Amino acid sequence: MGFPRIAITPGEPAGIGPDVVLMAAQRDWPAELVVFADPELLSSRAGALGLPLALSEFDPAATPRRHAPGALTVAPLALASRARPGQLDTANAPYVLDTLRAAVAACTAGHCQAMVTGPVQKSVINDAGVPFIGHTEFLAAATAADQVVMMLATRDLRVALATTHLALRDVPAAITADLVERTLRTLHADLVAKFGIAQPCIAVLGLNPHAGEGGHMGREEIEVIEPVLRRLRDEGMDLLGPLPADTAFNPDVLGRADSVFAMYHDQGLPVLKYSGFGRAINITLGLPIVRTSVDHGTALDLAATGRADCGSMEEALRVAIELGSNTRPGGVSPAVPTRR
């Protein structure tokens, strides 16, 4: 059986994205790692970090090969301006987006079986005059995906979100029956198709404190969430809730559930990041390709210092390889730990 190819975008060139890619590349991986980046950026950053690096140019027609520690395959794209660690440059914002487009194209063409994204600096992209909300929204548009779901995961916990980068005051109006149903359907489908869980159980959190406490602390659970859960249960989905968010993350619930479904960003993610800080990853569900990502930012002050932690990048690579193996002809089901 051959090896999958994993497309990697290091993200903001002035941040730690190139660092963590190069650090992770010092390990052995059962895949070919293809970095969509400026070769000079990779070489200069490897020199600053004191890491060995051998680059070879990406040939989509070649047979994928197993990664050798200290080596990387590179799909070359040129920076507009030389990257300086810790110093943002709007001239390089289009380059960051070009790496994403090229990696998506490689995946949709079947040349790569998954993509892993490093952290981007949203502010510098917007300052360059390019509207950019985040990776999730960009990749949804790039692949014409109808519905995408942001899921953060550690080896022991998965948390999917109904809403993502939305101001808290706007969340209640966004929690509609249509949104909850579409998101749950996407989550359920990818737990089956990409994670190999035949009958996934999803723990659904309420929006309000105490899940509304029978309507005394809000009626979204009664009027919006519960009717959707009843309909989907009638179709055979295994759904718990709506559960009070402050007590849902307990061993009894988490021992039964394959994923927690939170209504907004800071309802579920603080728990996940506390339990797996530095080892959590982002997985975009609903895309026609596999995409994982680190769960941290660009950490400009740590770029080229050697103090960056590559744990999240390594975990993102591990999961991308496992999920990507399932997309190859003759591939095997991903060996992603499940509780079911």
Describe this structure in words.
This protein has helices at 17-24, 39-49, 93-108, 122-127, 135-142, 171-174, 177-193, 220-234, 245-248, 251-256, 265-276, 311-325, and strands at 5-9, 32-37, 54-57, 71-76, 114-117, 149-153, 158-161, 201-205, 238-243, 259-262, 281-285, 291-294. With 340 residues, it is an alpha/beta fold. The protein has two domains: 1-145 and 287-340, 3-Layer(aba) Sandwich (Isopropylmalate Dehydrogenase), CATH 3.40.718; 148-283, Isopropylmalate Dehydrogenase (3-Layer(aba) Sandwich), CATH 3.40.718. Strands 3-4-2-1-5-12-11-6-7-10-8-9 form a twelve-stranded mixed β-sheet. α1 links the parallel β1 (5-9) and β2. The longest helix has 17 residues, at 177-193. The two termini are 27 Å apart. Residues 328-340 have low confidence and may be disordered.
